[in-house]
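Journal club prep, notes for RB
We'll compare a predicted complex against what the paper describes. Inputs for the NAP case:
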Amino acid sequence: MNSVLILGATSDIAEAIAHVYAAKGEDVILAARNCSRLERVKTDMEIRFGKSPELVEFDAENTDSHTDFYKNLPSRPHIVVCVFGYLGDNEKALHDFSEASRIIQVNYTGAVSALNIAAVDMMQKGSGTIIGISSVAGERGRQSNFHYGSAKAGFTAYLSGLRNYLFHKGVHVLTVKPGFVKTKMTAEMPLNPKLTATPQQIARDVVNAAEKKKNVLYSLWMWKYIMAIIRNIPEGIFKKMKL
Ligand SMILES: NC(=O)c1ccc[n+]([C@@H]2O[C@H](COP(=O)([O-])OP(=O)(O)OC[C@H]3O[C@@H](n4cnc5c(N)ncnc54)[C@H](OP(=O)(O)O)[C@@H]3O)[C@@H](O)[C@H]2O)c1
């Protein structure tokens, strides 16, 4: 039986994506650290969609567990959505490598580990979709979040190469680059409301883009143009800016 596997399911964006897929009648597997925190989401989805999602323990940093995690899933996913991420504290990461390492482990190493396993399974079947939630932060290193941004840059490049590799095996890969999204991750940040999406907007865009087999999605859409400007600011000017 096919299912949709959501990695990092306690995320606000993940919950919204789970709702969109469940509304389409898909069987959803929610994977997260400490699944007991997903009981509320599970009950809510049972009431809304009349179907119960499966809950599975998953820790992105525990890469040694990923093969068994995937092997023991209640069903083989035809769609895998990698949502987990860790913004971390950029200043702390500069002085304390354990924080820098965690940012890299969660956003890059853990994602590569989990998605490689899904990729091999899907290419053996000759079909499937992998969705990676990266970030516009990966497009240019900024003083405020260069540890997170560089890990996301690595993840974006990985997804691009994986898409190219899996295209020849019948598997589609979608890279998602959200701009600002109103979630737990950004709760303390003053975000411009005109440039900020809700998790529900991101979820609708993601599922639409995956169905249309788009390669790269910016959400909200204007971030495509904002990032084109940011990428093109000459380095001599960019380094003097406080971004
Ligand atoms: N919010 C934004 O403005 C924004 C912008 C661009 C990209 N993004 C990306 O969007 C994705 C979702 O973020 P969000 O905004 O929805 O924030 P969020 O609600 O804070 O979600 C982050 C998720 O990552 C999970 N996670 C962290 N470390 C993990 C680990 N070792 N193993 C498994 N899961 C782990 C967290 O799980 P716990 O609950 O266990 O901590 C949490 O569910 C992330 O990849 C983020 O980088 C967000």
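Talking point for the session: Residues 3-238 form a domain with the Rossmann fold fold (CATH 3.40.50.720).
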